[in-house]
Design goal:
The protein has 773 residues and is an alpha/beta fold. Helices cover 51% and strands 16% of the residues. The chain is built from 22 helices and 22 strands. Strands 13-20-19-14-18-15-17-16 form an 8-stranded mixed sheet, sandwiched between helices. Strands 3-2-9-5-6-7 form a 6-stranded antiparallel sheet, with no helix packed on it. β5 and β6 form a beta hairpin. α9 crosses α12 and α11 runs antiparallel to α12. It starts with 6 loop residues before the first helix and ends with a strand.
């Protein structure tokens, strides 16, 4: 079917409106977006102001490939090949090893850290005006120890963690009397008076902790995939400290490589010479053992032997599975025949692979159907019926015998297949053991051969390396630090916090909207039940629940006039002499149906229409409160008890300022409400009211709580189903949807009550403009 050319023209405005609705839904909360964004940017400014400034220092070294540096006794082809023998991962692990880093820490005294303390921010420094010399063993420091130091012209004031202050003279220190684990010496180029008032902090770390801290902060990686160059980087507040550490690390690694190669080369030569004789004997023994094993086990190509055994095992397993299935299916059919007491139909086409059984079952079912048809017209003793019963009984016996024979055949075949499967499995199971033993022999042979060749190569390399010891690395770049810090970055933090300031309120609102299970406006109803109209949205206006006067021009009054105007198009055409009956109901109490019925009656009365408002919620009447009358006043329940009474005795003047507005209260609260509403009295009362009034508005009971409204629903010309924004659950609309689809409520339409008016939305009616606030 071809799509209408106008379909897109109608869909596009709907999608546009949905998008605008979603945008404005979030824009209503623009102050929150602005506030959170400003707070986020403010926090970012504070963070940038006081966060430590981190620099990254980088050094680059090239690992020297000795196979390319030395051309003596080398294969010319291997040199031209250009392949590197360097394993950068191994070199990285050596550089970051505890042993190398320990040498760096000890050389630079990295177990002593220096900081310059500020009122808020504390900055790490590298070259303070004084030097700390430890007076205790390295392993005696178990936990970090903190000391604050303040300098003046002649001495230093040292405060330990417990708050104890000790004065140390630069020119005469009695460290034993002071009890400090270190001494302080002013550097030659430093002038103590220049640092007066500055608070320094010194931290003594355990040597192991200092090494682990360095290993954690040190980053080493290849500059690219095929490169032999390693980039060593270190981050810290003091770039002088980072650069010194990296340069010292390069030096220690190079010295370690040189000394190791000299020692290793000598030991390698001695070891290889001893191993040559032993490996030659082992290779001869392995080759003889492999030949004997293959001859004794009659092996040629073990993968081909395994494939044949596995194929045989798989085929027999599949056939056995099919036979087991047939045994089970035939057993099920046999149970079905045995268990039935009457001549009922047997199951057909259940998968039994036996044409004889299937034919017997089909014939049995045909006779059973013929017997069932005959029983409807003749008695049980009819000769034809008894004959069919006998035939069916014989057919059952025949089916059982056939099934027994079939099952016996299946079980014999299954036993034979299981024997074949077992033989194939045993044959296949022995192959891995043989393969394992053969592969073990071959693996030993391969290992020994590779080891023999490797030792030959290594002996030549060791001899050359022992004679010529070259540097293991080439320094491409000593440590250098960029001008700009890597942290914090303003160009990343401010945009990120700006996005976060907008994104966070959006997520909060999105979660709020998503997890909201209440109806908020008519769009929620249209998504759940698009087939029924939503006649109006009644706004929530603080301090206004009903018309202040009959000619009220407020937004609330105008919304009810819009509702009454929309209702006219849904009301069916009837005789002009009869009024229209309008029900007002809801799912539960508290959704504002009584107040809506009251205001709706006022809106019709303001149009000079004769209106009767009836309180048909006999269990919990609410209309009495709006007119300030008690429940003992005569009303609908009194007429239903006594239909012979004059019905006009239950009619009262409603709004005092409008003669067209009348009301019929619910009357005294009865105990048998369903019986009263099911009687003819209610229909009679409506017939009388429709002759006197143009509109009869009935405030009925909630539909989910009691069945009162459903008992009288057939008398309604229009049913207004009230939904309260922010209170009615979306899942309850399914109940009202079922009521409409099953016609248990006549000519139903929705009205959304208590809808919140956006603060930036202005309602204008006629010549008057009012804000819904």
């Amino acid at each position: 079917m071809k799509e209408s050319p106008f379909s897109l023209d109608y869909k596009e405005p709907e999608e546009s409106m949905a998008l605008k609705e979603m945008v404005f839904k979030y824009l209503r909360y623009w102050p929150w977006f602005l506030l959170v964004t400003l707070i986020s940017l403010g926090l970012g400014y504070i963070y940038l102001r006081y966060a430590p400034v981190i620099y990254e220092s980088v050094a680059k070294i090239k690992i020297v490939d000795e196979s390319k540096e030395i051309d003596i006794a080398k294969d010319p082809l291997s040199i031209l090949n250009g392949k590197s023998s360097i394993n950068l991962d191994n070199d990285i692990e050596v550089i970051k090893s505890y042993r190398i880093l320990n040498q760096v820490v000890e050389a630079l005294n990295l177990d002593i850290s220096y900081y310059e303390k500020g009122s808020i921010k504390t900055k790490e420094i590298w070259n303070p005006p004084f030097a700390i010399t430890k007076l205790i063993a390295e392993d005696s420091v178990k936990i970090a120890q903190y000391y604050d130091i303040v300098l003046d012209a002649k001495e230093a004031q040292v405060t330990d963690e417990r708050g104890k202050t000790i004065s140390l003279n630069f020119f005469k220190q009695d460290t034993i009397a002071s009890g400090l684990p270190f001494s302080i010496n002013i550097r030659e180029e430093a002038v103590p008076a220049d640092y007066y008032g500055i608070n320094f902090r010194v931290i003594l770390l355990p040597i192991k902790q200092a090494i682990f801290n360095l290993a954690k902060n040190l980053q080493i990686q290849a500059t690219n995939k095929n490169s032999e160059i390693l980039a060593l980087s270190l981050k810290g507040e003091s770039f002088e400290r980072s650069e010194t550490i990296l340069n010292e690390l390069i030096n220690k690694f190079n010295q370690d490589g040189i000394s190791d190669r000299q020692l290793v080369s000598k030991r390698t030569l001695d070891f290889i010479d001893d191993r040559f004789v032993y490996l030659s004997d082992e290779l001869d023994s392995i080759e003889v053992g492999k030949e004997d094993f293959k001859r004794l086990n009659n092996l040629s190509y073990i993968e081909s032997d395994a494939g044949i055994s596995l194929q045989r095992k798989t085929v027999t397993a599949d056939e056995a599975s099919k036979l087991e299935t047939q045994v089970e299916l035939s057993g099920l059919l046999k149970n079905a025949v045995t268990d039935q007491s009457e001549y009922n139909l047997l199951p057909v086409d259940i998968g039994v692979d036996n044409s004889g059984v299937n034919t017997l079952v089909s014939d049995y079912n045909k006779m059973a159907l013929e017997r069932e048809k005959l029983m409807t017209s003749v008695g049980e003793n009819h000769p034809t019926l008894q004959s069919l019963s006998g035939q069916l009984e014989r057919s059952k016996v025949n089916i059982l015998k056939t099934l027994n024979v079939y099952q016996t055949q299946l079980k014999l075949s299954l036993r034979q297949l299981n024997r074949e499967k077992s033989q194939a499995g045993q044959s296949f199971a022995r192959l891995p053991e043989k393969e394992k033993m053969l592969r073990s022999i071959e693996r030993q042979q391969s290992i020994k051969e590779n080891l023999f060749l490797l030792l030959l190569q290594k002996r030549e390399e060791a001899a050359i390396n022992y004679a010529v010891t070259a540097p293991s690395i080439k320094v491409v770049d000593y440590a250098v630090t960029g001008d700009k810090p890597i942290s914090p970055k303003k160009n990343i933090i401010y945009p990120l916090l700006f996005i976060l300031g907008i994104f966070f309120p959006f997520i909060v609102l999105y979660l709020r909207f998503t997890m909201d299970t209440k109806i908020q406006n008519k769009s929620d109803i249209e998504k759940i039940h698009p087939d029924l109209p939503v006649l109006a949205e009644i706004p929530f206006i603080k301090g206004h629940q009903s018309f202040e006067k009959i000619h009220d021009r407020s937004a609330l009054a105008e919304s009810f006039r819009i509702l009454s105007a929309n209702m006219i198009y849904l009301l069916p055409k009837t005789e002009k002499a009869l009024g229209k009956v309008i029900y007002v109901t809801s799912s539960r109490e508290g959704e504002g149906k009584s107040l809506l019925a009251y205001n709706l009656s006022l809106s019709f009365a303001s149009l000079n229409k004769k209106v009767l408002l009836i309180g048909a919620d006999l269990r919990k009447p609410q209309l009495n409160e709006y007119f300030h009358v008690g429940h003992d006043i005569k009303g609908l329940s009194d007429f239903l008890y006594d239909p012979e009474m004059n019905w006009k005795e239950c009619i009262y003047q409603g709004d005092k300022s409008n003669k067209f507005h009348k009301v019929c209260f619910s009357g005294s609260i009865p105990i048998n409400v369903p019986q009263l509403l099911s009687s003819d009295g209610f229909e009679h009362f409506l017939d009388l009211a429709k002759k006197e009034f143009e509109y009869v508005i009935v405030d009925t009971a909630p539909t989910m709580l009691v069945a009162d409204t459903l008992l009288i629903s057939k008398y309604a010309d229009l049913t207004l189903y009230v939904v309260r924004a922010g209170r009615t659950e979306k899942k309850t609309l399914q109940f009202s949807k079922e009521l409409s689809q099953t016609s248990r409520l006549q000519n139903m339409a929705y009205v959304v009550n208590d809808v919140a008016i956006p603060k930036n939305k202005t309602y204008t009616y006629g010549y008057e403009s009012k804000k819904g606030s």
